[in-house]
Amino acid sequence: MTDTSTATTRTVDGVELPAPGHWAFDPSHSSVEASVRHLGLSRVRGRFGSFTGAVDVAERPEDSSVQVSIDAGSVDTREPARDEHLRSPDFLDVAAHPTIDFRSTEVTGGGGHWQVRGDLTLRGTTRPVTLDVAFEGVENDPWGGSRAAFSARTELDREEFGLTWNQVLESGGLLVGKKVRIELEIEVIRAA
Q: What does pTM read for this prediction?
């Protein structure tokens, strides 16, 4: 039996997984990004530069939990005028809703692939979402710490969260797509 108080990994059903414990996000080695179609053609990508979160890994992986809080005002699409519009009441309404929050409610799956279901609160509206999560591994860093990494993806309908601003094009299409793809690359550090 592995002593999980000091080990940073353990084997569950033949697969190496992070050891139980509290694993905090390392924002400098993580990213939270979103993309949406523009004119029904290209995909415009943006990122959120400020966020916090943690993964609490349980003895039984299915009992684990995830929480994330994103500073909505930190949105960055590399176009200042568009970013200001995204912060306005037309979209994120940052003055009234400064954070975007996710709390898991269920973890299922196995091996390196998991589904994390939870409640996403965006612009004051809470809806269930499912993240498809891949466990990327665990590694000890040069400073005596242990890190794990996860990739997660989901897609949501922004109008379900009250982000309904749009413009109809001459062709009948929309300026801004309704579907938003969310992609997370998260590195976490195990608490001592």
A: 0.87
